Amino acid sequence: MGIGVAQWLSAADPEPWVVETSGSTGRPKRVVLPRASVLASVEASARRLGASGQWLLALPETYVAGLQVVCRSLVAGHEPVRLDDHPSLSAAAAAMTGEHRFVSLVPTQLHRLLDTDAEVLAGFHTILLGGGPIDRTLRERAAAAGVHVVATYGSAETAGGCVYDGLPLDGVGLAIGADGRVRISGPTLFAGYDGDPGLTAEVLVDGWFLTSDAGRLDEDGRLQVLGRLDDVVVTGGVNVPAPAVAARLREHPRVDQAEVLGVPDEEWGNRLVAFVVGAISLEDARAWVAQERPRSWAPRQLVVLDAIPLLANGKPDRLRLKELA
Question: Which one of 74, 114, 115, 282 counts the least CB within 10 Å of its CB?
Answer without folding.
Answer: 115
